[in-house]
Amino acid sequence: MRNCLERHSISANLRSKMVDWMIEVLCSYKCKNQSFFLAVQYMDRYFKDTKKVFEPTDLHTIGVSAMFMACKYEEIYPFKLSLVHEKIAHKKISKERIRA
């Protein structure tokens, strides 16, 4: 999405690193390509539509949550919240925050 980062303190370079990491994670769990594209779309749409101004520290939480939601929609066997919390977020993001 064009200009989805214009209100935020997140650079395009940092967003591209997050997108690369999302590719790595979803490929390592053998997710469909469509899950990746949907996750990136969720992340960008959230940046564009939200009123809150995000900092670079928020990017990881938003990316992890976007992958979690995309897999729930696209995958036959979607990620469980415990897997996302323990393996993908390495217990640095609470289950409640991922779910929110």
Question: Explain this structure to me?
Answer:
- The protein is an all-alpha fold and 100 residues long.
- The chain contains five helices and no strands.
- Helix 1 (12-28) runs antiparallel to helix 2.
- The protein is globular, with a radius of gyration of 13 Å.
- Spatial shape: globular
The unreliable regions are: none
Q: In this structure, how is the largest beta sheet organized?
A: none
Radius of gyration: 13 Å
Strand content: under 5%
Number of helices: 5
- Rounded mean pLDDT score: 94
Helix content: 55-70%
Number of separate strands: 0
N- to C-terminal distance: 23 Å
Structural class: mainly alpha
Order of helices and strands: HHHHH
